[in-house]
Design goal:
- By secondary structure, this protein is of the alpha+beta class.
- It folds into two domains: 9-43 and 71-160, no CATH class; 162-230, Membrane-bound Lytic Murein Transglycosylase D, Chain A.
- It has helices at 96-107, 164-170, 188-196, 202-208; strands at 9-17, 20-29, 37-42, 72-82, 119-124, 127-143, 149-160.
- The chain has a seven-stranded antiparallel β-sheet, covered by helices on one side.
- A hairpin with a 2-residue loop joins strand 5 and strand 6 (127-143).
Length: 230
């Protein structure tokens, strides 16, 4: 893939609605495409604070202790920034510190007014992935005689982001499956009220997601609310 003529680009945005990014805050094209792009699917099976309890369903029956319905997708990749002249292609990277500053601005620096990190679109040819950066690591590997960096190796990981507000606002029909990411303060009862207009659906949803307890929703986990006939 490294020989592809299509440049690998990282793009930062202020907003995400219905899976569509908007309000660009900048873009960065790599000097050289990565040699590899890793796609990861992570099932978060962390348990709650009462791990010593026997795993039971929401209505008290023994069940499998794994509770989360969906795997969270992420991508990770490495690339090089170089200002020694070793990279012959025309590039806008003329200073390593300046390039790092641009990368931080569009990926991990909190946006003024929103106090949130940017939404990031990673694009390489037909491959497009939208999410938020989990980690950005910079390893400086070459310096000039004055100590100024001339080369750096960058490692970046971007995780899938679910636009739960847009989903709940635009998908009110009970015939549509919703897959929200749990936030602090969420409860199964309130989510069932929102998605089905019926708070009493919480037991069926807990059983559908194989949850040990409907009382404990862990922020950052993902649950599935499928179409259900009442």
């Amino acid at each position: 893939m490294s020989g592809s003529l299509s440049a690998f680009s990282i793009n930062g945005y202020k907003s995400l609605s219905n899976g569509v990014t908007s309000e660009s805050i900048g873009s960065f094209s790599l000097q050289l495409n990565p040699s590899a792009l890793n796609v990861n699917y992570v099932v978060n099976d962390k348990k709650g604070p009462e791990d010593n309890e026997e795993a039971k369903s929401a209505i008290g029956n023994p069940t499998n202790p794994q509770t989360l319905a969906k795997a969270k997708e992420s991508v990770s990749f490495n690339f090089i920034l170089d200002t020694t002249g070793a990279i012959s292609k025309i590039t806008s990277v003329t200073s390593i510190p300046s390039a790092i500053s641009t990368l931080k601005k569009i990926t991990v620096d909190k946006i003024s007014g929103t106090h949130s990190t940017p939404y990031v679109s990673v694009q390489w040819g037909a491959f497009i992935f939208v999410g938020k950066v989990d980690s950005l690591q910079v390893d400086y590997t070459l310096f000039d005689n004055s100590g100024n960096p001339l080369r750096a190796h960058i490692s970046m990981s971007v995780s899938e982001h679910f636009d739960t507000k847009a989903d709940s606002a635009n998908n009110q029909s009970p015939d549509i499956t919703r897959i929200p990411t749990i936030k602090e303060g969420d409860s199964l009862v309130s989510l069932c009220k929102e998605f089905y207009d019926d708070a009493n659906m919480f037991i069926r949803i807990a059983e559908f997601n194989n949850m040990p307890s409907f009382r404990r929703l862990i922020p950052g986990t993902i649950l599935e609310f499928p179409p259900i006939e009442k």
